[in-house]
Amino acid sequence: MPLPEHGSLFSLFMKYCSMDFFVKVLLHMGFLLNNMLKPFTIIAVAAVGIGVGTNYYLQRVPDMPKLDLNRWWGDGNRPNQEDESIRPFKITFNDTMIDDLKMRLRNRRPYTRPLEGMQSEYGMNTIYLEKLLKYWQDEYDFKGRADLLNRYPHYKTRVQGLDIHYMRVKPEAKGKQVLPILLMHGWPSSSKEFDKIIPMLTTPRDEYDFVFEVVAVDLPGFGFSEGTNKPGLNPVQIGIIMRNLMRRLGFNKFYIQAGDWGSQTATHMCTMFPDEILGFHTNMPLSSRPISNVKYLVGSLFSSFIVESKHKHRMYPLKDLMRYLVRESGYFHLQATKPDTIGAAIADTPAGMAAYIFEKIGICTNRKQLHTQHGGLENIDLNDLLDTATILWANERITTSVRLYAEAFAWPEVLIIQDIPTKVPTAAINFLHEVVYQPDWILRDKFTNLVHSTTLDFGGHFAAMQTPKELVDDIFKSTVEFLKFHARNK
Amino acid sequence: MPLPEHGSLFSLFMKYCSMDFFVKVLLHMGFLLNNMLKPFTIIAVAAVGIGVGTNYYLQRVPDMPKLDLNRWWGDGNRPNQEDESIRPFKITFNDTMIDDLKMRLRNRRPYTRPLEGMQSEYGMNTIYLEKLLKYWQDEYDFKGRADLLNRYPHYKTRVQGLDIHYMRVKPEAKGKQVLPILLMHGWPSSSKEFDKIIPMLTTPRDEYDFVFEVVAVDLPGFGFSEGTNKPGLNPVQIGIIMRNLMRRLGFNKFYIQAGDWGSQTATHMCTMFPDEILGFHTNMPLSSRPISNVKYLVGSLFSSFIVESKHKHRMYPLKDLMRYLVRESGYFHLQATKPDTIGAAIADTPAGMAAYIFEKIGICTNRKQLHTQHGGLENIDLNDLLDTATILWANERITTSVRLYAEAFAWPEVLIIQDIPTKVPTAAINFLHEVVYQPDWILRDKFTNLVHSTTLDFGGHFAAMQTPKELVDDIFKSTVEFLKFHARNK
Q: First-to-last CA distance in chain A?
């Protein structure tokens, strides 16, 4: 097992400086200093000792677990003959679904009003929610929105037993190099989240000699992609399905752009298939290695050394971050432990499902809008918001999508793989209101070739919907770095 | 501010043994012992020092905050003339409500089935849920159940601006002393939870020379009691309302039996009104003083000393308890942070509301029934379960009831008051599957006069529904101790 760079230095140190010797020196010094040595010094010295040991322990890299790259997720057992066809697909919001949805919205019971003087401090503001629901019921153009989404070619194909939906959009190459890029969304989104950025990626730009061919996919159990009936479909396993989908489409090597769970999935893909992923652009960069978490925690004591002062507020004081995380992660906690409960709770109520997902979408666009009635929702185009809700509702994907939270924490393979660094060239873009910010120094624990990094003082979690232009500009810029990286490492 | 008993001993110790002297001795000893002194000894000594200091700090008792005992919770401002009338009330489940409820149950969309091989591990089992909902829709006798509840006299009266519902049941005294007892439920219950134990409490027993007059109340925002539109109605404030209700009924001194949030409320009442509460019987005994939490944590290292070996499994290993608490507290986290979101999410779906509350009720009856389809629900009578759901649904109390979780953590007065011990004679009954178990040694941090304590190797959180006989037997036994206590302390 290869040790990270300074592991060997530490071994050298240990060779010449046994713990016994260290303690002896410490005690002699202690005696001489006598009353000057206060208890907290003892504790500090012990802490440094523990720290060095812990660092050594945490820098170890586990072995890659053995994974079945063709695991069966369909109903029952794998058939003798698998259907590998690629079928064109059109999004339809049919009248039965629309009428039923509108009937349920009309039939809604009156809401409990917000507490006096409160906006979104206790969660979804029901006065604002009513406006959204009224628009969904009376003004949202179901057919028109489906037509709009259908301006791209949609397909379905069966991978490892699950019907996977994706859009595949070829660029007008105009003599440019065509680079394949896979776009992966998170919860509660679908490939629809990329609607605005697809044309930007497939349109050549004068200043770049490449352009993208886009595959925007729905994760299994999301959007128009089938969910599994088998336990265990965690982000590592989804990563395998996504890689197999790309191979089916003829892409043995490709780029990825992703956020949220898509980014977690992509991170695992970079770890499992480092020679197949040509570059990874993420708007939710995250090293979940234990060493990174320790650095983040310990860093709160020395924040001036580990993060630029202008970005410090994104990490510290830790108390503020923890308060924000506790305040906003109730849904996460519930979904990670009782996904089938919340799935059943909002299975037959479009209004309730909308309340549940919209509150989260709002605050993720801007965590400081708790004291507004819209709670951040006005940072997203209303039709985009309702597309998301309609797709989730029409396909009955609440339970299958929230189960991902439970699967992500239930299987050791996820913990092991997230602790293995990847060499895939990676670019990070940090929007202001992303849930967690890690400086490059920490990101490099996981992404050893972090070739590009951007930190913006605006924007939020749903970058492709909220700040599509900035996101795409950064993808182009980062890809230049990816190409340079490969040129250097040929 | 009075110091607890051994606080003064500690002061004495501090007088003769300054920290500097202590460090000096430590360092001399360290030098002599030389190589024998290993780093963990230093850490252990430091830990003991920190421990003694922390204990001293934690044993301090804060001052009682100033509280308005007549705060207004009704809409707008307090009127010049308050309505203090006591109005007889009958529970009615009317046809409009019933038809609408049944229509919604019939109209339910098909559920996502549980994952292959799973029972309740991912939350509510939708196959089992369907059976419950079918019974609710086709067989539950709405009118008959209301009639049953109406066999007790119900009332409403306006306290501090809120209409409070309660049952008041007088005993056949037969020459026995009549003791008033207030029964308080928790979430997602109502006074209906006490349906089975009311007649047991009001029926004289040969072996006791007292019997109870019962007041079973719905907490504000629960059951048939009005919720507030003002922020701040936490368990301390609810305790004030409950005390004022009892005074309105002519009870200036009374006993309390309670569990769940009722027990938290009652605990605050014992702290605020120690001369008015004659005795407190709780099936969810809990000292939330910081010192108790520290004892609980530190105790995991010395569990053999602090808890009888036969009860040890209820507390430790801490890892198992934490895993259980994390697994089962998603709903709690969500309700404590975004009550209005979950309220809006299940406002118009009786099926969804049932799924959401039933999963929790099931597991609280027996935490080991995750691998069954019913998840613990078969420990509760089906009609009791559906009474709870029907009352919650008919009165639209989801949002107002879950807001209590948010209020309980938002206001400093709760933290302060829960850190003040009470002298009210208290009895604790510990059923096997109660959420948290604290041995008497810890409970006494809060309840300095814990006069009776029972620990049973069966039962769960909803004692009044699940094990009514054992609960009432223990109330009678405990009351003997309450009376002895008052005789001793006349």
A: 25
For residue A41, the chain B residues in CB contact (below 8 A) are none
Backbone conformation region of residue A106, classed left if phi is above 0, alpha if psi is from -120 to 50, else beta: alpha
How far does A8 lie from chain B, in Å, by closest CA? 24
Specify the pairing of strand B254-258 against strand B210-217.
Answer: unpaired
Alpha carbon separation from B410 to A5, A177, B236, B238, B388 (Å, rounded): 47, 57, 12, 14, 27
Q: Please, which pLDDT band fits residue B41 given cuts at 50, 70 and 90?
A: low
Q: If we measure between CA atoms, which residue out of B336, B338, B455 comes closest to residue B405? A: B336
Cβ contact, residue pair A340, B122, below 8 Å: yes
Give, in order, the Cα–Cα distances in Å from B46 to each of A298, B25, B39, B43, B404.
21, 13, 11, 5, 41
Nearest CA in chain A to B351: A345
Distance CA B229, CA A223 (A): 38
B123 vs A338: CB contact, 8 Å cut-off? yes
Contacts of B36 in chain A (CB under 8 A): none
Mean pLDDT of the region A415-443: 97
Q: Which residue has the higher pLDDT, A168 or A305?
A: A168
Which residues in chain B have Cβ-Cβ distances shorter than 8 Å to A334? 330-331, 333-334
Rg for chain B (alpha carbons), in Å?
25
Determine the Cα–Cα distance for residues A33 and A36; give it in Å rounded to an integer. 5
Task: Give me the interface pTM, i.e. the ipTM.
Answer: 0.89
CB contact under 8 A, B349 and A344: no
Q: How far apart are CA A222 and CA B15, in angstroms?
A: 67
pLDDT digits (tens, 9 = 90+) for B420-470: 999 999 999 999 999 999 999 999 999 999 999 999 999 999 999 999 999
Q: Which residue of B has its CA nearest to A398?
A: B112
CA distances from A109 to A85, A325, B133, B273 (A): 46, 32, 20, 41
Catalytic residues of A: 260, 405, 461
pLDDT tens digits along B60-119:
899 999 999 999 999 999 999 999 999 999 999 999 999 999 999 999 999 999 999 999
Of the CA atoms within 13 Å of residue A221, those in its CB half-sphere come to: 32
Decide if B405 contacts B336 (C-beta within 8 A). Answer: yes
The length of chain A in residues reads 490
